[in-house]
Amino acid sequence: MSAAESLLEAEKSLERALSAGQNRPDRLPGLQMIFGQLPRILVDELETISLLPAKVRLVELFASTIGDTCTLPAGAFAGVVRAERWRSWLYFMTDPPASLLFVEAATGCESISPAGLAPRKTTRTDANVMRVLFRRVARALSSAFSILADVEFDVGDVVEKIELEPHLGPTSAVIAARLSLEYDGHSGFVTIVIPQAALESIRDLLISATPGEAASPTNAPQTFEDPAWSRQLAEEIARAFIELNGVLEERPIALSEVQRFAVGSVIELQMTSMSRVRLDADESPLFWCELGKRENGLILRVEEEFDQQREAVDEFYGL
């Protein structure tokens, strides 16, 4: 073994020793809380993707190094993930069985043979499908972290070989979570790798949190609010559908004119190309928009918010 290799091995041994000490996940109860609820949240994220129901289970939460966790075998994929608030990169990885299972499930497979899926060469299409999984993992992880901290994870490239970011090296200490992803009785592993340096800003929260209790970043007095439930409720409300209308012109007309309407009737409007369009959401005015055209369709560009009070005043004075 060369001197350089000996030095590298010594550094790795030191990183493992540190990871086995103060940075062990069992000394970070907040982290255990977060990853303890992650499988349930991820199942909810995956339920609309495929006909086959997904089962997710946390297998292991452990301290390691980049070099020991981020080597991908053939047929595996990794998502390179940015946590802007932490100014750090994470890695989501799937082993070959998990990759094949998710691609099959997400592309309409109704059942999987008891013998399982035969290994095959991966394609770029597979990578694009895996991006869907990594985005769902990112959303689930962000939701799980919300009990302690607000952080968003942005999935970038999906790769078959990880090129480490400049500030990371093979000996960089990480926290890794290994999840079992199962479809129709067959399973593979999804691994989430978080550099320990990324957690420094919330380490105190991870240490002080106790099971069943969400620590507050601002040390606010304890309340009976459930942040995870509140976030889920907000997300459900955000996904609700409302009716959106663009009102070109409104003018009063006599009932007798309405009675004369028939198929083929022509209704003249006073609007011009410079007229503004009012955008209503569920019958509530929101914005004034400019009407335009793109290719073969009409488009609206939001110009300004609809000021309910100002519009009422203008109408009163006939403006």
Descriptive notes:
- Helices cover 33% and strands 26% of the residues.
- The protein is α+β, with helices and mostly antiparallel strands and 319 residues long.
- It folds into two domains: 8-238, CheC-like (Chemotaxis protein chec, 3-Layer(aba) Sandwich), CATH 3.40.1550.10; 244-316, Roll (Surface presentation of antigens (SPOA)), CATH 2.30.330.10.
- Strand 8 (276-281) and strand 9 (284-294) form a beta hairpin.
- It starts with a helix and ends with a helix.
- 26% of the residues are buried.
- Residues 16-21 and 213-224 have low confidence and may be disordered.
Strand and helix map with partners:
Blueprint: H1 3-19, H2 29-46, E1 54-65, H3 66-69, E2 77-83, E3 88-94, H4 96-106, H5 124-145, E4 154-159, E5 173-183, E6 186-195, H6 203-208, H7 227-238, E7 244-247, H8 255-259, E8 276-281, E9 284-294, E10 297-305, H9 308-316
Antiparallel strand pairs: 1-5, 2-3, 2-4, 3-6, 5-6, 7-8, 8-9, 9-10
Helix pairs in contact: 2-5, 4-5
